[in-house]
Amino acid sequence: MRNKFMFFISIFLIFLILITSSNLLAQKKKLTYKQVYQRGEPRLLGSLPSIRGWADDQHYLKYDRGNRKKGISSRLMKVDAKTGEESVFFDYGTYKEKLPKGFSLQTAAQHTDDYTGFIFQRKSDLFYFSTKTENFRQLTANPAMEKNPKLSPDGKWVAFTRKHDLFAINLETGLEYQLTSDGSDVVYNGWASWVYYEEILGRATRYAAFWWSPNSEMIAFLRFDDSPVPTFPLFRADGVHGKLEIERYPKVGDPNPDVKLGIVNLQNQKTVWVDTKGDSKQYIAWPFWTPDSKRLFFQWMNRGQDEIRIYSANPESGKITPIYSEKNSAWVEWFESIYFLKDNSGFLLRSAKDGWSHLYYFDMTGKLKKRLTKGKYTVTGISCIDEKNQRIFFTRTLGNNLETHLYSVGLDGKNLKRITKSKGTHRVTVSPGGSYFIDTYSNITQPSRKELFDTEGKSLKLFGDQKLPVMDEYDLAKVELFTIPSGDGYDLPAVWYLPPDFDKSKKYPVIITIYGGPGSGTVADRFPYWLGNYYLAQNGIIVMAVDHRGSGHFGKKGEWLMHRNLGKWEMHDYIAAVKWLREKPFVDPTRIGITGGSYGGYVTCMALTYGADYFTHGIAQYSVTDWRLYDSIYTERYMDTPEENPEGYEFGSVLTHADKYKGHLLITHGIMDDNVHMQNTIQFIDLLEDMNKDFELMIYPGSRHGIGGMKRMHASRLNLEFWFRNLLGKKFEIPAE
Question: DSSP assignment of 530-599, as one string?
Fold first, then answer.
């Protein structure tokens, strides 16, 4: 009898648990449009503490916002990594009354490493404040704008460009020195030509093309002559008559800018020109000073971009000495970092000459001393060189190249050691002597955390967790990493976001989000920077990303397959992904969407034309549609010229396959796009119209590459409306909240 009673009690308790669990699930909240797209409350992800780097090997700098009510101003705190003991390193409030209205030390354009000198930019002029003298003064008074101010390493000078000439100001005397004098509408000194800025030096430079020597006595700079470069018109439709903006833009096969490398000495203001031809048939970039300032390493590349050389230049004579070279039948890439040992005994390079990016140790003449890493993984960066203990801290990929971790290895190539342990993607800052590191890490299910470790991997302090407690109250998408077979030997990395109430017996639409350019994979074991995919999944759409064989997961050997074949392998692998999806009983093959911008827009257009039998819907944003219309450096790197590779250009053009288009495509573009010209979209839609094919088009006046500013919200809503209407069969409306 007792056993029977206990049996019924157990059944009753299980029933209660099931009912309670069901109620809890029913009470789970859903993301709102305002939360995801307008930063509405409540926020699910918080901000992490601001660590501003290392003061020395034992102390890091933490930004403290202070407390206005208690009269505590914002400060930089110097914190002992071992004990946690804090002291004030720099108090911003101390100098508040010394600054004119509207100026704040926190918003300075530049500051010295010891926070004793600050440079400000206001309107078109520069200002300087010294905490040593507590003196604030205006440095320039010129209607022309000073651009990219850079303090010298010793903090005694500031260099900048004005009207395409290079200048420097002695901060002790206030005297200004004009270091070049031939700047014009087509000649730029220390200011990059557009194509160099976009494709070689990078957007982070903000066009700056000059570099201080470590001893603060010289400045290396690039001089560009854009006069051979053809122009391209961009039309701004403002006002009554509009305005025409003329851009120097070399399309494929066009003349490039002529480039020279100069070294100017601040003592006599004389420039020594490095011994190179300086014409448009070569590229010169990425100079690096040796620690003693006695030599300037720089890089040369041929126009075909299949050979790169590193030279050493004498700053006094301009004479050059060859140091290192590489050739490849596909393409070579710039060494964006050359790491010199402080004792001038050698330097480190990250080279992918064997198909994977690895570390090599050379002496100063370019003779290989030791290969330090080897294997089917990618070294992504050097975090610290600990010369005292003869070891290097570096980051590398792991786990099908989806994770990134911190490792160390000796300068003799021995004692390779993994330091970060937790699964996912790690971004680290190692202390100067290699004793500690600050790690910001996440994975697909865990938002970012910031934590302090010693370099044995022992945790010392958790600074913060981006995940807020309220996140557990939400019914979010289930996220999974997996691979998809390509059909010819590649396991393609993929990630998807499944609806929270996912039911295998139902049919779901799919959106594939892509970029797709060579070496530009988007699938990684890390938490996304925003919750847009979660919002779409919550509304009944499976969101997926997949990387093709040339995305970087398979090393340069995978990327090099794309040489002269842009469009080919992307389409092969993305179509393989759709074939795999079609085998799933819960996927609706009549609702397969794809979207991306720039190169991702190109892939989207190819998917809806060449791949029209597989992809049914797409949103293509600021897309390349024909590689003949894009810039010389990027396109020739991967495709060579149309004369050398007519078949590749023909196949790789969206226009070639426009007759196959039969789905639903939304095309968006900014009128002032100076990167991928709207010409690409115009030529594509011109052809579609001639073929009497339907599509949707949205043009954004004044917008450049990417839709931002006031129009960003319109673009986001437009995209959602397209997906809801075509994949869910209903109208999207922003709910009243």
Answer: SSHHHHHHHTT-EEEEE--TTSSTTHHHHHGGGTT-TTHHHHHHHHHHHHHHHTSTTEEEEEEEEEEETH
Residue pair 637/331 in contact by the 8 Å Cβ criterion: yes
Tokens representing 562 are 């794309």
Cα–Cα distance, 301 to 161 (Å, whole number): 26
- Residue 67: how many CA atoms within 13 Å on its side-chain side? 2
CATH homologous superfamily of 376-473? TolB, C-terminal domain (2.120.10.30)
Tell me what pLDDT residue 9 has. Answer: 53
Which of 431, 408, 412 has the alpha carbon at shortest distance from 420?
408
Question: Across the chain, what does the average pLDDT equal?
Answer: 94
How far apart CA 496 and CA 163 sit, in angstroms, is 49
Output the CA–CA distances (angstroms, integers) from residue 350 to 301, 353, 389, 392, in the order listed. 17, 9, 21, 13
Domains 376-473 and 474-728 share a fold: no
The whole-number pLDDT of residue 1 equals 47
Its sign, for the CA torsion 597, 598, 600, 603, is positive
Distance CA 518, CA 567 (A): 10
Query: ∠ CA 182-188-193 to the nearest 5 degrees?
Result: 160
Contact 86, 95 (CB under 8 A): no
Output the six-digit token pair for 639: 């495709």
Q: Which residues contact 13 (CB under 8 A, 6 or more apart)?
A: none
| Single-letter amino acid code for the residue at 405 | H
CATH number of 474-728: 3.40.50.1820
Q: What is the pLDDT of residue 121?
A: 95
pLDDT digits (tens, 9 = 90+) for 584-604: 999 999 999 999 999 999 999
Say how many residues make up the chain.
737
The dihedrals phi and psi of 162, each to the nearest 5 degrees, come to: -145, 125
As a whole number, mean pLDDT of residues 408-415 equals 97
Partners of 150 in beta bridges:
159
pLDDT above 60: residue 14: no
Is the pLDDT at 3 greater than 60, yes or no? no
Reply yes or no on whether the pLDDT at 494 is more than 50.
yes
pTM of the model: 0.93
